[in-house]
Amino acid sequence: MLSTRQSLFWMSLYLAIVAGICAVLFEPLKNAVLANPGFNGVILGVLSIGILINFRQVLVLNTEINWIKVFRTGQPGISVTTEPRLLKPLATHLSKRRRDRFRLSAQALRTILDGIRERLDESREISRYLIGTLIFLGLLGTFWGLMGTIAAVGDVINRLDVGNGDFAAVFADLKQGLQAPLGGMGTAFSSSLFGLGGSLVLGFLDLQAGHAQNRFFNGLEEWLSGVTQLVDDLGAPTVTAAPGAVGDVPEAVDGDANGVDDPNAPTLALLLDTLRAERGLLEQLIAAQAANPAPPAVDDASGTNPPRPGI
User: Fold this and answer.
1) Where are the alpha helices (DSSP H) in 124-233?
2) Alpha-carbon span 71 to 304, nearest angstrom
3) What pTM did the predictor assign?
4) Which of 43, 60, 144, 216 has its CA at a distance of 20 to 30 angstroms from the CA of residue 209?
């Protein structure tokens, strides 16, 4: 199983780069937040929740990986009674089996892997939803600000009075009236900035979380595929050999099992025990046939035994 350290490293590095850019642009970003503190605060809150969820999706894989490692090694004193969350179908299937000699058919393997894949996909749905929520909040803030800007511009135009000839007073009123439209534009652009920027950050984190889950799933599939190589759909190894060669097959398999590393060694050991049992059964059958030879043939016409050649 591959570790999640690579994904956690890239996620942490990306957030560090984003934090550095925000530190450099602190004053402009501060003014952008203050343009509409309530709306931008909601966007930043959703972004923080999304970051925590993406890190949790990667960190939760460590529990699953540790459970598999403990199950494979079978170290004494270590308990695997606590079932994992993502690998619960596999844990349920293997709960009453010996960890050094368990078998899975191809159909059971596919069913378990499909269930685990569905659980992994479901765990990422909330992250994808938050990415869409940030985009929606950014667009909503943009339209909200533009609506305020249009209304404020119309109000400024209606209040202009150039009939008295005092252009200084008209210009002062115009300058004061433009503050509301400029505030609406600040709301629009700041919300769009934080919404789209937050969706970009969550998109990268979700991508890294997906890579970590894919590496975990591929490693799990390779391990389980090694277990099911010698097992048919009925759950039993398929062995065919000539009677004269039965005595040599277990020794040959024994030599292969001793030189094969995990995870195929337990399966080969099971095959070895099966061949030894079949060899003992065949030897008993041969001994029984030797102890009870077949009776001589009887001539149908005379009812007596036919003469043997040479007598």
Assistant:
1) 125-159, 167-177, 179-227
2) 70
3) 0.64
4) 43
